[in-house]
Amino acid sequence: MTSSEIPTDSLDASFNYTVIVQRLTGTVKWFNNKAGFGFITVCEPGDYNEKDIFVHYTSIRVTNSQYKYLVQGEYVDFTLVKANDNGHEFQAMDVSGVKGGPIMCETRRTSVSTMREPRPHVPHVPHASARMPPPVRSRTAPAGPPRGRGPPPAQQQQDSPGPAQAAGADELLGFTKVQKKRRGKPQGPGPVPIPAPATATA
């Protein structure tokens, strides 16, 4: 019988069956989520090794009420029963994870719900440098030279050349400084001596 010929309501709570093996382990060969049924391949040595067992979604055991399905390739444990009045001779019941653990549809739901949980609010702590107040600038101007066009008086005295330096500089440049004579009254010849009068002799 093909998958299209398998009725989705093949397992009813009131159907008559006989337990063949209490627990077996198998892998999900395929499962149609929309139709709600599939097959599990037995992977234990024995009379039912590699035998495909029909499984209906009503036989899947879940902890919480949720959408039940199986994932292709996952390992499951189940009870093998033989239906007395059903189209499938062997069917899987009480399907769970290995060793009674959760199946993948449960673990996926848990992962999604964990991702959707809001993260705890962590207050933002600014950096230590951000909490420090800015430095206070002093309003008094630093001591310095007076604001003028010329250099300070001490520097002017230091920079102004003395007479000796000025003379030396002129000699280096090839100039001879001519000293000006002071203007005054013209100096003539000195007083002319007046001869003494001759005395008469007796």
Automatic annotation (TrEMBL):
PROSITE patterns, per the entry: CSD_2
Biased composition (Pro residues): 143-154
CDD domains: CSP_CDS
Annotated spans, Disordered: 109-202
SMART domains: CSP (SM00357)
Domain spans labelled CSD: 23-97
InterPro entries, A to Z: Cold_shock_domain, CSD, CSP_DNA-bd, NA-bd_OB-fold
Pfam families in the cross-refs: CSD
GO MF entries: nucleic acid binding
Official protein name in the record: CSD domain-containing protein
UniProt source species: viral metagenome
